[in-house]
Design goal:
Blueprint (H helix, E strand, L loop, with lengths): L6 H16 L4 H26 L5 E4 L10 E4 L1 H21 L10 H17 L3 H19 L5 H32 L4 H9 L6 H19 L7 H8 L2 H6 L3 H15 L13 H21 L3 H21 L3 H31 L16 H16 L5 H12 L6 H27 L13 H23 L1 H15 L2 H9 L6
Antiparallel strand pairs: 1-2
Length: 505
């Protein structure tokens, strides 16, 4: 049993506990400790990616109890891919936070590590109930982070966020309880075997539970019509928190891919293809609605939040194709959109600080200091987000459209993707014009010295370098995502690895 498999969960948990024990006694130690924990996570995940590169699936049975009796953590190619995206995002978000954002609350670094604990656990768990547990950890940590810095708008957005997600958690428990009552199992591999041979009298309840779970995951992913909580929440969160939250909707998308590929997939017998009639139409609608929201937004943060919604539509559109090429396109697009929207949240904060009372509102105002550097970064991010060549956003959309060439809904997919691209281009061009070209007066503040400006922009530049890496190494990365997709669409590999892991009580 490879003990490295539990390290992505233990590292942020232990770091969070240590940071909490330090309290206010050693404030100078919080930042180094938090950075060390994130760097360790990056190293551990790189080792796990190397261990699973050949298709191996690592199963860690806690207490050495075999599945389905004990709790298992499972590291396959998909889990390792999501873990490395999360760890890299966390590093650059933390680099932004230590420039001052972390000082507005005593427990920022504790909550940051617990958020990573919840995220990593959700990607690794092989058990539906523990997926619920990690969702709750995510909810608690994200609520604390959302309130970080205070203010009535954040409290209001946080209350909305908590109420909506508690409703989702309640439905999650109903679905999990029903599945356990029917099949006596919550281990996903064991459940996949039992669902496939469900008796006719249990099929309606199994279908109802599966659709209820889909509603919960759609809420987490901000899929239409459950996206309404996201724009206000992300727009009013601090820049650091909003940037970290760029990965949050991907947890819902991951769960849809994992659970419905494994438990309700093609080999699920009477409940096979449970969400196929729903996923593609909802993803198409989410894509269009997200871009319309971005076009109508009155502020840059709100616009970025709607771009996150639109990215969920593109991602689930790729997953909804339910074929290797489509899932591979989605897995390539996932880190691109995560890094791009996170960078835009951080840039929106830098712009807002320089605009004074105008904040990030999309209204003409005085020219901002450092407009050349900020405008250049905005242009690059806009190209990435809009999916224009030559960056990875264009490659992701190209792969998506190519995967859909022989799909029955090709005309709808092509129309939605092209219209969404046009709307995104118009929205971002309008934003750039208002922020950088329609100045009413010279800048009120002097420009920063170049070293200080580069330090401030370092997290944004780092995220853009990751996008550049996705572009330059596109061929090898697409090959990797195709291998991940091929493994995901063969659920028997996952089931065999978990159910025959060799653990003994």
């Amino acid at each position: 049993m490879n003990h490295l498999a539990i390290a992505p969960v233990l590292t942020p948990l232990l770091a969070g506990i240590l940071l909490l024990l330090l309290g206010g006694a050693c404030p100078s130690m919080r930042r180094p400790l938090s950075f060390i924990a994130v760097v360790i996570q990056i190293g551990v995940v790189l080792a796990l990616m190397a261990a699973t590169h050949d298709g191996a699936i690592l199963v860690y049975a806690l207490g050495h109890w075999p599945a389905p009796f004990g709790i298992v953590l499972v590291v396959d190619r998909l889990a390792a891919w999501l873990l490395i995206i999360t760890a890299l995002l966390a590093f650059f978000v933390l680099l932004h936070a230590v420039q001052g954002d972390d000082r507005t609350g005593q427990h920022f670094h504790v909550l940051f590590q617990l958020q990573l604990f919840g995220l990593n656990g959700a990607f690794l768990t092989g058990d539906l109930f523990n997926l619920f547990v990690f969702f709750e950890i995510l909810l608690l940590a994200s609520y604390g982070l959302l309130l970080h810095g205070g203010g009535p708008w954040r409290v209001r957005a946080g209350l909305h966020f908590v109420v909506v997600n508690l409703l989702g958690s309640t439905l999650f428990l109903f679905a999990v309880g029903t599945l356990y009552g029917i099949f006596g199992a919550l281990n996903m591999a064991d459940l996949a075997q039992k669902v496939a041979v469900a008796s006719p009298e249990n099929v309606p309840l199994a279908r109802a539970s599966g659709l209820l779970l889909f509603g919960v995951f759609a809420l987490k992913a901000a899929l239409l019509p459950f996206y309404l909580w996201l724009p206000a929440t992300y727009a009013h969160a601090g820049a650091t928190v909003a940037a970290l939250f760029a990965i949050m909707t991907k947890v819902g998308a991951y769960c849809i891919l994992r659970v419905y590929g494994l438990i309700f997939g093609a080999s699920a017998g009477p409940v096979a293809g449970l969400i196929e009639p729903w996923l593609l139409p909802l993803a198409l609608a989410t894509l269009i609605v997200g871009l319309l929201g971005a076009l109508a937004s009155g502020g840059l943060r709100q616009q970025t939040a709607y771009l996150v919604v639109a990215s969920v539509g593109s991602l689930l559109l790729a997953f909804g194709l339910n074929r290797v090429a489509g899932v591979a396109a989605g897995l390539y697009y996932l880190p691109h959109t995560t890094f791009a929207t996170a960078a835009l949240f951080l840039l929106a904060d830098a712009i807002a600080r320089r605009r004074g009372e105008s904040d990030d509102r999309l209204d003409p105002a005085a020219a901002i200091a450092d407009a050349g550097v900020l405008g250049g970064l905005f242009f690059i991010i806009a190209v990435a987000v809009a999916g224009l060549p030559p960056l990875s956003g264009f490659l992701g959309k190209f792969l998506l459209l190519r995967a859909a060439l022989d799909h029955p809904l090709l005309s709808w997919i092509m129309t939605a993707v092209l219209i969404a691209g046009l709307l995104g281009l118009i929205a971002l061009a309008r934003t750039g014009s208002l922020l950088f070209f329609r100045a009413l007066s010279p800048p009120a503040k002097a420009s920063k010295p170049l070293p200080a400006l580069l330090l401030e922009m370092a997290p944004i530049i780092g995220l853009l370098l990751l996008i550049l890496g996705l572009t330059v190494a596109g061929g090898s990365i697409v090959e990797q995502t195709r291998a991940i997709a091929a493994q995901v669409l063969q659920p028997q590999l996952y089931i065999n690895a978990v159910m025959h892991s060799g653990a003994t009580p």
